[in-house]
Design brief:
By secondary structure, this protein is of the alpha+beta class. It is about 45% helix and about 20% strand. It has a two-stranded parallel ribbon.
Length: about 80
């Protein structure tokens, strides 16, 4: 997270990211509840940069490729992508 913040800091004075939309996509074995703090930290950082939160896809998975079998999550991701 620190690396992300360090990389984004130069964009504060230039405002090049202002108005841009962002999305969080996080597969996790622990599930969506474990990503709550990550999403909040990203939301605060992007708010500071003037960016707009477009949505999140937080899914509980254990193995590589498991998301491809979850049609509900794939549709949610597709719908979010077309809305942005």
């Amino acid at each position: 997270m620190k690396l992300l913040i360090d990389r984004m800091r130069p964009f504060v004075p230039s405002q090049k990211l202002k108005g841009k939309k962002w999305v969080v996509v996080s597969p996790s074995a622990e599930g969506p509840k474990s990503c709550r703090l990550l999403v909040e930290m990203l939301r605060q950082s992007c708010d500071y940069l003037g960016m707009k939160f477009a949505g999140k896809i937080l899914v509980k998975v254990y193995e590589k490729g498991e998301v491809q079998k979850n049609q509900k999550v794939l549709k949610e991701a597709y719908d979010l992508g077309t809305a942005v």
